[in-house]
Design goal:
The protein has about 190 residues and is an alpha+beta fold. The protein has nine helices and eight strands. Helix content is about 50%, strand content about 20%. Helix 2 runs antiparallel to helix 4 and helix 4 crosses helix 5.
Length: about 190
Amino acid sequence: MENDIVKLISRFLTLTEKESTAFIECIPIISFEKGTILLKEGQISRDSYFVIEGCVRKYYIIDGEERTTEFYVEDESLASLQSYTNKTPSNHYFECVEDCKLAVLNYDKEQELFERVPKYEALCRMSMENDFGEQQEALAKFITSSPEERYKNLLETRPDLLQRVPQYHLASYLGVKPESLSRIRKRLTKR
């Protein structure tokens, strides 16, 4: 498993042997079972993750109801940035919706890696800027589209989720009730 993290990072950076060792020492790859809660509301996040295999869901509990806001799959990173960087309690949850294999980066180990491998900090910054831009676009698209348009967009951009995630989580992600999602799907299959 130790070589897995080096293979992963080597996709983005050319590493010396010393730098490879730093990644092996600082970023373990851990398997989590489906249903594992990685972060709960109220906890201070100490870890960020990179999905090697599996799917993680981000959700909030509002008025006793779960509201899914994101799914993270292979080659995507996730962190509760506000909690992780400012050491404040999280206002959401991260849950494994499949068995997952994740690279886990602890905040203190991340700071150590920035010291040991300075070019890693630049990679993280560029990655965060890219992720932030994508999130802005996704939020704008969500706000300006109807539930049916959101579903069509999901079919176009993330069709794998339809096979991997329960329908009630998809409905929550699209901002509708499961019954409404069923009606949307029926309407679209009749066309």
